[in-house]
Design brief:
It is a single chain. The chain is mainly beta and 348 residues long. The chain contains no helices and 32 strands. The protein has strands at residues 2-7, 12-17, 38-39, 44-46, 59-61, 67-70, 73-76, 82-89, 100-107, 120-122, 126-128, 140-143, 149-152, 155-158, 166-171, 181-189, 197-201, 204-207, 216-223, 226-227, 235-237, 244-252, 257-259, 263-265, 275-278, 281-282, 287-292, 296-302, 307-313, 316-321, 327-335, 340-347. The strands form nine sheets. Strands 19, 20, 22, 23 and 24 form a five-stranded antiparallel sheet that branches. It is elongated and about 115 Å long. 21% of the residues are buried.
């Protein structure tokens, strides 16, 4: 600072220069309260340009692999769980000290909540799914079999009951090169059916009356939706093997009709050796036939684990004599390649 004055003794004017220093600068502040603690991919936040008190320009720094800092717009560009730190500072001004601030941000993975979709749906059942993902993006739902499970908007409806597994998928738009996908598989059943079909042996299915309040007196078996002509007994046997979808129409003594819930059996692997046994119920010392796909060792094992018979079978039909003692026996057939097939034999 300069001061002008007059020296009365000397009769001269003079100019005096003095230096003045501030004893203390004021504290400045950077307001990061508008920055969220949690962000998802694609989310953008505007950062303050100036400090709160000193009106000083703020300089920011952040992990560039997680956030895109374009001017004052900070956008999350990853869809993975990560914790990052945003730092901010200003330069020291004439009246304020330099200000410093930081904010910890959790980046979360976007997800589609499909927990409302049950593992099993029944005919006519409807389920409403969320319209938005956790990150707030619109979700589009699709079904890989709309004839069974239809999708309209965010509502899934069960139209039919079948052995097929249906996949419902939810997806969001592509954001910064990533897309949220969620899949869930659903089984379908008829809510009016009776869970009565049980597998007794490899080649026998039967209706179990023990779990219902009525007694069935007549039966009609169906396979893959087609009526099996002549199959009207309580059990179904196919010595060549069972595979596919089986249902039964049953009636009680009053003529009331019931439907057994669908029972599905996967086709056996083509690599498995074929062993067809018939009949599977024989008298002691009676004869039964074992039909095989190739040569192998055949063993008859009692429930006590004792070998009741052992012999080599040829490809095709083999006539076998049943054990003398009644009981349930396990049949084991092993090919030269080590492939194994099993079955059961009841000796009366």
């Amino acid at each position: 600072a300069k001061t002008n004055g007059t020296d009365e003794l000397a009769g001269e004017t003079f100019t005096k220069e003095t230096n003045t220093f501030k004893s203390a600068l004021l504290e400045d502040y950077i307001d990061l309260s508008g920055v969220p603690e949690v962000m998802y991919v694609g989310h953008t936040v505007q950062l303050p340009e100036f400090s709160a008190y000193g009106n000083a320009k703020v300089i920011y720094s952040v992990d560039a692999t997680a956030m895109d800092l374009n001017g004052l717009a900070m956008t999350c560009i990853i869809n993975e769980a990560k914790v990052i730190t945003l730092t901010a500072r200003t330069e020291m001004g004439d009246e304020y000290n330099a200000a410093y601030a930081s904010k910890t941000i959790k980046v979360l993975v976007d997800d589609i909540d499909m927990s409302a979709l049950p593992d099993t749906m029944y005919i006519g059942q409807k389920v409403t799914l969320p319209l938005l993902s956790l990150a707030g993006y619109d979700v589009t739902y699709t079904s890989n079999n709309p004839a069974i499970l239809s999708v309209e908007g965010n509502v899934v409806t069960c139209l039919a009951a079948t052995h097929l597994v249906v996949t419902i998928q939810g997806e969001t738009p592509m954001v910064y090169g990533v897309q949220t996908l969620k899949k869930k598989v659903v089984y379908t059943r008829d809510n009016g059916c009776v869970d009565a079909i049980k597998q007794v042996w490899d080649d026998v299915l039967a209706i179990d009356n023990s779990g219902v309040d009525t007694v069935f007196v007549s039966y009609q078996w169906f396979k893959d939706g087609e009526e099996l002509t002549g199959e009207t007994r309580q059990y179904l046997q196919n010595v060549k093997g069972l595979n596919g979808s089986y249902t039964v129409e049953m009636k009680d003594a009053n003529g009331k009709v019931y439907h057994a819930c669908e029972f599905y059996l996967e086709p056996k692997s083509e690599k498995a050796p074929m062993m067809v046994v018939y009949p599977t119920i024989v008298p002691a010392n009676g004869q039964y036939t074992v039909e095989t796909s190739n040569e192998g060792e055949f063993t008859v094992i009692s429930r006590e684990g004792i070998n009741a018979d052992k012999q080599t079978l040829v490809e095709g039909q083999n006539a076998i004599v049943a054990p003398m003692q009644s009981g349930v026996y396990i049949l084991r057939y092993e090919t030269r390649d080590g492939e194994v097939a099993t079955g059961k034999l009841i000796v009366k």
